Amino acid sequence: MPKENRRQARIEAVQQLYAREMRGVLVTRPADGEPAWPVDGGSAFAAALVEQALGRLPEIDRLLAAALQNWDLRRLGSVDRAILRLAVAEMLVHPDIPAAVTINEAIEIARSLATAESARFANGVLDRVRKEIGRDPRTTAD
Fold first, then answer.
1. Which of 73, 79, 112, 137 could share a disulfide with 100, CB 3.0–4.6 Å?
2. Could you tell me if 19 and 81 are in contact, meaning their C-beta atoms sit under 8 angstroms apart?
């Protein structure tokens, strides 16, 4: 998938995760045997990111809570929280994408959907998560 399309898919995924949180259906898991969480339109990559974030939400939130210094995850803005959750999900599930790419994409999305301050904040938090999960910033897993 071309770079522009992946960025758009990530933006779609952030919007989907944000919308789910606003509707109060963020942590609703499908029952065994039911299809995965449906995503309203968008690309397969966006749908996969949303599903991966929702499927590993407790682990993602634990990693974020540990990386947030003097902050509570619930106090973050909903858009910031969605950006961070999706970036962590991508780092956990997509070892084929260098962590530096994932973090840079999250920073650019934060700049476009939130604020420059959100972008700087996301950079620091996501780098701490990257270190915690043992991802090298520039390489992919074999």
1. 137
2. no
Residue 108 sits at the vertex; the CA angle it makes with 121 and 21, to the nearest 5 degrees, is: 70
- Please compute the mean of the pLDDT values over residues 93-97 and round it to a whole number: 94
Please give the residue range of the domain that contains residue 81. Answer: 3-23+41-133
Distance CA 5, CA 99 (A): 18
Q: State the pTM of this model.
A: 0.84
User: Which CATH number is 112's domain given?
Assistant: 1.10.940.10
Which helix H or strand E contains 134, and what residues bound it? none
16-20, 40-44, 84-88: segment of lowest average pLDDT: 40-44
Q: Which residues contact 35 (CB under 8 A, 6 or more apart)?
A: none
Q: What is the pLDDT of residues 63-79, one digit of tens each?
A: 999 999 888 898 999 99
Residue 30 lies in a domain: no
